[in-house]
Write a structure and sequence with these properties.
Distance between the termini: 72 Å
Low-confidence stretches: 1-12, 256-269
Organism: Thiorhodovibrio winogradskyi
Structural class: alpha/beta
Strand order of the largest sheet: 1-2-3-4-7
Number of helices: 16
Oligomer: single chain
Order of helices and strands: HHHEHEEHEEEEHHHHHHHHHHH
Protein name: DUF4351 domain-containing protein
Largest sheet: 5 strands, mixed
């Protein structure tokens, strides 16, 4: 067996598995329309796609695993009048891996053998290695050979200015998921990443989508782009101010989206303690450690409604007293 590339270091890195799996299942037509439009055009979307996650787990139980983020097996109906069903296997790969093409071939053969229908294998590469671009698996010995090709999309290509502009101009909501993943992977500076996260969330607001859709996509962006606790608190306050400035009906959008307030600082301690921790971090940053010490007990014992009100007041407060009046 031959490989398309050499593996790179796969040391401990953030895991994007959950947001990718949810994004693929929630926005599968949009995913294909954005990244694989020719395949999207061949599907009869009047028949809902069927996700076969358990079946895929059984197929791949003994297969080699690299650092992938998500894989999906979806049954769709072809739009050619034949009433033919096709399996689409999607592999989202997070790092360069020497055996990736071999694994794609292994899944293809196992799925075809089990279901005896056409299988289309798709690769989404989210790594930052420009040279990792597997598109095929080849094997040959003594005159016997195999060539297996599969469509591949490299998200890093969309970081180029022209391609990025296409994403920003797209009305496809999956473009925001792709942009969030790219920025999470290529941005090292936390402050810069915070600005990108705010920009992407603003794009979601500005496109005028329905509230439920906005909440879903905001949650995916929040999953994709993780910030240090203090910056996460700053970002949330900026979003509150943005919502209020433009009179948007999404007051405290993170809460509406099911994202717990203070989840970065206080997930284990519960929602209320997390909100208190965030407010205390803001207070210390803005007015100093002495001010925090003077109000720590009051914040720690406050009700959630009070914490929310104080978090909004701190945006325009000239002194600690104006926050707690």
């Amino acid at each position: 067996m031959t490989a398309d590339t050499q593996a790179t270091d796969t040391s401990d890195k953030p895991d994007y598995d959950s947001p990718w799996k949810e994004a693929l299942e929630r926005f599968f037509p949009e995913f294909l329309a954005l990244l694989f439009p020719a395949i999207h055009a061949q599907i009869d979307w009047s028949v809902a796609p069927e996700f076969l996650d358990k079946e895929l787990q059984q197929i791949g139980g003994n297969s080699p695993r690299g650092r992938r983020y998500a894989d999906k097996l979806v049954r769709v109906r072809a739009k050619d009048g034949s009433d033919l069903y096709v399996l689409i296997h999607v592999e989202v790969q997070g790092d360069a891996e020497s055996d990736f093409s071999a694994r794609m071939f292994l899944y293809q053969t196992r799925l075809r053998d089990r279901y005896n229908i056409d299988v289309v294998s798709l690769a989404v590469l989210t790594d930052t290695s420009p040279s990792f671009r597997p598109k095929s698996f080849r094997h040959a010995r003594w005159g016997c050979g195999i060539v297996f090709r599969f469509p591949m999309v490299k998200l890093l290509d969309y970081a180029e200015p022209e391609r990025w502009a296409e994403l920003e101009a797209s009305d496809n909501v999956f473009a925001l998921v792709v942009m969030a993943q790219i920025r999470a992977k290529v941005t090292d500076d936390a402050e810069t990443l915070k600005r990108w996260k705010f920009r992407l969330m603003r794009l979601m607001y500005d496109r005028g989508h329905e509230r439920a859709l906005i909440e879903e996509v905001l949650r995916l962006i929040d999953w994709m782009i993780r910030l240090p606790a203090a910056l996460e608190a700053e970002l949330r306050q900026e979003l509150y101010a943005y919502e209020e400035q433009y009179h948007m009906p999404y007051v405290t959008t993170f809460e509406q989206a099911g994202i717990e307030k203070g989840k970065i600082l206080g997930m284990e301690l519960g929602v209320q303690q997390g909100e208190a921790n965030i407010l205390m971090a803001q207070l210390q940053e803005k007015f100093g450690a002495d001010s925090l010490d003077a109000h720590r007990e009051r914040i720690s014992t406050a009700a959630p409604e009070e914490l929310l009100q104080w978090s909004k007041r701190i945006l325009r407060a000239d002194s600690p007293e104006t926050i707690f009046q």
